[in-house]
Amino acid sequence: MLLRECVDAGVEIHCGCQVTQVSKSEGFSVETNQGAFVASSLVVATGGLSIAKLGATDYGYRLARQFGLRIEAARPALVPFTLTSQMQKQLTSLSGISLEAVVSLNDTEFRENILITHRGLSGPAILQISLYWQRDKSIFINLMPDEEAGSNSTSWRKAT
Questions:
Q1: What are the Cα distances from residue 76, in Å, to 11, 24, 50, 69, 82?
Q2: H helices within 35-144, ranges in order?
Q3: Beta partners for 47?
């Protein structure tokens, strides 16, 4: 669908094209390793910083600063949490287990599944709370959201 829309709009697609400079006067001028391009408008889709191994850079941020655009501080979002090696070792036998929990930070909480992985914690509740996480804040995970841990209200009976 996207390609069809591009054809209908007369969009040119250039693969393997590295942008070296962008400037603006009446329109935009884009210098690349495949030549110069001029356009009345410009859409920049550079990806994010989250996957540097795949070549992600801060080019989009630098370009936005060049044109005086307001930039939100980059921070993790919709990401799993990695654990310290000691915590990973303690949870390694639980890797692959998913359970319902309440995950909270300040006044924000999510009641969804969490997933214990070989690297840490993931699942819907973890991914959602990662939007609110800050380096100096603690996240709380209640693994028994419908129970009072240590209370006498829960009784266990041996099956006969």
A1: 33, 32, 8, 21, 12
A2: 59-66, 85-91, 124-129
A3: none
Q: What is the pTM of this model?
A: 0.62
Specify the amino acid at residue 159: A
Beta-carbon contacts of residue 61 (< 8 Å; ≥ 6 apart): 71, 74
CB atoms within 10 A of CB 96: 9
The H-or-E segment that residue 113 falls in is strand 108-116
CA torsion through residues 52, 53, 59, 62, sign = positive
Closest among 121, 124, 122, 99 to 110, alpha carbons compared: 124
Give residue-wise pLDDT tens across range 50-76: 777 877 888 889 999 999 999 988 777
| Band of residue 11 on the pLDDT scale cut at 50, 70, 90 | confident
CA distance 85 to 65: 38
Per-residue pLDDT, 12:
83
For residues 45 and 150, the model is more confident at 45
